[in-house]
Amino acid sequence: MTTIPVPVSHPYEVCIQSGCLAGLGEHLLTLHRPCAVAVISDDTVLPLYGAAVEESLRSAGFSVVSYAIPSGESAKTLQTYGEVLTFLAENHLSRTDLLVALGGGVVGDLAGFAAATYRRGIDYVQIPTTLLSAVDSSVGGKTAVDLTVGKNLVGAFHQPILVWCDVDTLQTLPEAIYRDGCAEVIKYGLLGDADFFAYLRDHHESPDLTKIIARCVAMKRDIVCEDEFDRGLRQLLNLGHTFGHAIESCSHYSLGHGHCVAMGMAMICRAAAVRGLCSAETAAAVESLLTAYGLPIESPYGLEALSAAVLSDKKIMGGSLALIVPRAVGQCGLHTVPATELRDWLRDGGAL
Ligand code: NAD
Ligand code: GLY
User: Fold this and answer.
1) CA nearest to 192, candidates 215, 212, 169, 208
2) How many whole angstroms separate alpha carbon 29 and alpha carbon 27?
3) Residues framing ligand 1 (Cβ under 6 A)
4) Which residue segments constitute the domains of the chain, with CATH numbers given?
5) Among 161-170, 258-267, 311-320, which stretch is predicted with the lowest mean pLDDT?
6) DSSP string, 287-324
7) Cβ distance 31 to 62 under 8 Å?
8) pLDDT digits (tens, 9 = 90+) for 265-320
């Protein structure tokens, strides 16, 4: 078992191992007395892994009820959130009972928000089952649901008491969803670890997922510990996301988030190279790694559509926006760009 401590305001551990679902209940007993547990999952993941989680919890003395939300981002709503809260109340969960979020980032964010707010907050465990949720959303305590006017607009910071990552669950991921997660993995290499970037390049045909997840989680942990409540440094995790979100929005969310982040990363690297902020070799190395992982590097949307989408993004404040810009592989920084220069950045990034 690879264990990564996360010493934030409410410290916890991220435990990563192949085949560890069966050991969840026993491990949880070291953190919590036997109690009622609500397993919140989605209607794809619960049939795959619900029984293993329920059996492990029951054999350790926990009582278990399970609830599946519809799978996919369209379920990350106030309505589904309300339905989960109602389920918790109908099953008489008390403040000292537990919630387990079993699934990808949608389940983790929504169930985490339910845990943050049900009876003013109960403890919860994250069991990530997508690569994206393993390396990103399950760690750091950001929970949220979407509104029709925008993503993640209602939420809370609420750290889990444990993240329990069974790498074997990733084997059932559809290829495109797995690749979405690969984009976030590559993001960590570009952001802060040139050796890890080289490892990803050299092992793209048979990556060691436990090692990869552990490295990404440790990097996210370091950033979150410096800026738990997202007041500055944590924005670095948005590398590739400003242009990526614009592409995602232009596609009306038909393109996968990670695929859009991949295009966003390639664009910001090209634009940085044009400005001499990083070398052309850095931009080429990033494009080549994204391509090796089956990810796109060119936006299907042009300059007009992308600049309109970025300008309507919530992160623009006071006529400028903070872009995360690479200086070299493994070195990135925040760069404040006037909104008036945005079109130039997009054009230099390759938008036509
Ligand atoms: P997701 O949760 O929608 O999962 C993608 C699809 O994969 C779903 O259809 C799901 O049912 C299916 N699935 C999940 N695990 C599976 C498995 N093991 N086998 C087969 N199918 C499986 O999407 P995601 O990419 O995991 O997460 C995206 C969400 O994460 C977004 O809502 C985003 O806002 C959020 N997010 C949050 C944070 C954070 O810090 N809280 C960070 C990044 C992203
Ligand atoms: N994924 C962004 C964050 O956790 O801050």
Assistant:
1) 215
2) 5
3) 42, 44-45, 48, 71-73, 76, 103-107, 109, 129-130, 132-133, 136-137, 140, 142, 151-152, 169-170, 172-173, 177, 180, 257
4) 2-172 (3.40.50.1970), 175-348 (1.20.1090.10)
5) 311-320
6) HHHHHHTT---S-SS-HHHHHHHHHTSTT-BTTEEEEE
7) no
8) 999 999 999 999 999 999 999 999 999 999 999 999 999 999 999 988 656 667 88
